[in-house]
Amino acid sequence: MGGGDACESADFCTLNFKTIMEQEGVHHLLYGEQKVPLPSGKEKTLWLLFSANWSRPCKAFIPQLVQAYNTLIETGKEIEVIFVSFDRDENEYEEHIKGMPWLVVPFNLILQTVIGNTYKVNQIPLFIPLDVGTKLLSKDAVGLINDYGADAFPFTKNRQEELKALDEAKRGGGNLIKLFTNGIEYSFVYAKGGKIYASNLVGKTIGLYFGAHWCPPCREFTSQLIEAYNDITTNEDQEFEVIFISTDRDLNEFELSISKMPWPAIPFNSNTRQDLCRIFEVKWIPCLIFLGPNGKTISTNGREMVSSYGARGFPFTEAKIAEIEKSLMKEKDGLPQQVKDSKHEHILKLDMAKAYICDFCKKRGVFWAFSCSVCGYDLHPTCIEETL
């Protein structure tokens, strides 16, 4: 992150900032509509925030920082933020500072350039300290705050390692209560009302489904997962549940996502959604992660398993998939490699398909099909009437 080595001495950093301001004829900061003296840095830890209204990453980061900052102030942390604008004009600047609860440098394009060059700002948003030796700090305070909020304080390397260790413990520890709630009882919601609690999931195979309504592949996969889910849960001997973790952009999208889902979801206003995305390192959607009855991860490739095997893959362990593959090969050995069926003019060849619709009975098929390479005609093996 740019600017990380700009200052190593607290006195130098604070005095350097004040000197730059005074040399440019600026002797105050803004706090709302009030003018306040330049800070000395002796009472609070001072941080510079470089941001701009035209930058999408900045506009996404500011609400995260506001929430973390307010929490830190409420809990008595001695921290102060000073905003340095990288906006191109004063209108953008005025729009950007709305709702900022910290100190703001007055809009000044020349001052912006001088401060930016001094602290070697080469990307925004950037969040760097004035009063702390930077060698101890995380290289990405912005990323830490996005991931952990106020818990990331004081944004040091040691704190980052502590938080990563906690995530790893939750990911592999097999404790569902801690995974979802940090020990506090927690409820998941259904689209049509009703709740289920984390404690109700103990002993079940669980699918953590990360998705969003705005994502077309998610909508397609949701239909496949619903079919598998319904098939699995109709068997009373199979303890299975799916928990939806939304990455939707707003509440309306979230409600559209869950409207047809038969399983519960983490409430949209819960930070647990973001926590689970981070803990399980979800980089793309749709993503389906399976936890075994002991609460430990058994597969991070649930989407492929469900797409390939449907309910037949339950409980989605490596041993079960190996068993299915062996069974499929045995089925293949019992089928002809090609057929000439009276219902179709071309020769049909044996093929494996994740899912298809039989052109004769119009029912869904999986795994083996007899397919036409000329026109795409498909038949279930059970619908074949004449073979070569």
Automatic annotation (TrEMBL):
It comes from the Eukaryota. It catalyses: [protein]-dithiol + NAD(+) = [protein]-disulfide + NADH + H(+); [protein]-dithiol + NADP(+) = [protein]-disulfide + NADPH + H(+). GO terms for molecular function: thioredoxin-disulfide reductase (NADPH) activity. InterPro entries: C1-like_sf, DC1, Nucleoredoxin-like, Thioredoxin-like_fold, Thioredoxin-like_sf, Thioredoxin_domain, TryX_NRX_thioredoxin_dom. Residues 1-171, 177-326 form the Thioredoxin domain. SUPFAM superfamilies: Cysteine-rich domain, Thioredoxin-like. Its EC number is 1.8.1.8. Gene3D superfamilies: Glutaredoxin. Keywords: NAD, Oxidoreductase, Repeat. Coiled coil: none annotated. Belongs to the nucleoredoxin family. PANTHER family: NUCLEOREDOXIN 3-RELATED, THIOREDOXIN. This is protein-disulfide reductase.
